[in-house]
Amino acid sequence: LTPVSPLAVQLTPGCCKACPDGWAKHGERCYMFFNDKKTWCEAEVLRTQGGNLFSLHTPEDADFVRNVVLSATGARTATWLGSHDSNNCWLNSDGSKFDFQAWGPGEPNNYGGKEGCMELLGQPINDISCSIKAAFICARSLEVMDD
After folding, report:
1. Residue 147: band (very low, low, confident or very high) from pLDDT cuts 50, 70, 90
2. How far does Cα 134 stand from its chain's mean position?
3. How far apart are CA 4 and CA 145, in angstroms?
């Protein structure tokens, strides 16, 4: 028998990923909810802070956002998400593949030819005019943290 020496654990600097101050973790992304009302384009300007509007990929993502909004506001609140219609093709502003399919009944419908942005208002996911003002939720990548 060979004796077993104690296992030494050493953390490598920069090995761990976390969210920056003020942002909360969800899956492999960080998020922050903003209850100040902006148009979709005004809200998307947060790219300059390293984030984009939150892109939905699954019904669970939508449930997560609903819960964040309800916890923050205590009510159903119109909230911008990160998808928009570009020439009849839905895109995510963060560059990820648009694969969300759990729209509300009859949505997206581009009512009046003027609905090109995705919003959440309680249960249904809806397309609506990008020029209305709504709360918004942003997401960004986890950051490598140094010691």
Report:
1. low
2. 15
3. 33
pTM: 0.83
Q: What is the pLDDT of residue 5?
A: 41
Q: Domain extents for the chain?
A: 19-142
E-assigned strand segments in 10-133: 16-18, 24-26, 29-38, 52-53, 79-85, 90-92, 117-120, 125-128
Domain 19-142 in CATH: superfamily? Mannose-Binding Protein A, subunit A (3.10.100.10)
CB atoms within 10 A of CB 122: 15
Other beta carbons less than 10 A from residue 107's beta carbon: 16
Provide the 10 A C-beta neighbour count for residue 83: 26
CA distance 110 to 86: 12
Rounded CA-CA distance 115/84 in Å is 9
Q: What is the mean pLDDT of residues 14-21?
A: 82
